[in-house]
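testing teh design pipeline on a random one, pls ignore if ur not involved
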C-alpha cells in the first residue's frame, strides 16, 4: 500500500505561483507512474500532469502547458507540481495519484489540497 499526502495549496492572486508537494509513504514509488489531477466545484476530476517512473516521459493537459511543471525525486519519495501564471480557472482541489506497473489506471490517490486563485 502507498499513502499519498499533498501539501502546498492555498490562496493566491491571479498571476501568482504555488508549488504542490506529494509525499509518498508505505513503499517506494520509484517504479510508479505519478500524476496530478484536479477537480473544480461542479466539474469532473481532470488530468493535469503525469510523469513516468524514470521521469523521462512527462505529459500535461493543454490547459496547463507552459505554466505548470511536474517533477519527481525518487530518492525522497516525492512528487511536485510547480504552478506559475495561475488563473482563476485553475481553482480546484488538486490530487496526487500513483499508478503501479501492472495497473491500467491510477490506483492510489491522496486526499487533495485546495488551490484557490483570486482574480
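output:
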Amino acid at each position: 500500500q502507498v499513502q499519498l499526502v499533498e501539501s502546498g495549496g492555498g490562496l493566491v492572486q491571479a498571476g501568482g505561483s504555488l508549488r504542490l508537494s506529494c509525499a509518498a509513504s508505505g513503499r517506494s514509488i520509484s517504479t510508479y507512474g505519478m500524476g496530478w489531477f484536479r477537480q473544480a466545484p461542479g466539474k469532473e476530476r481532470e488530468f493535469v500532469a503525469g510523469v513516468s517512473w524514470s521521469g523521462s516521459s512527462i505529459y500535461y493537459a493543454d490547459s496547463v502547458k507552459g505554466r505548470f511543471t511536474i517533477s519527481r525525486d525518487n530518492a525522497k519519495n516525492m512528487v511536485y507540481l510547480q504552478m506559475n501564471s495561475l488563473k482563476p480557472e485553475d481553482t480546484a482541489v488538486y490530487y496526487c495519484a500513483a499508478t503501479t506497473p501492472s495497473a491500467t489506471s491510477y490506483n492510489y490517490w491522496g486526499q487533495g489540497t485546495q488551490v484557490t486563485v483570486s482574480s
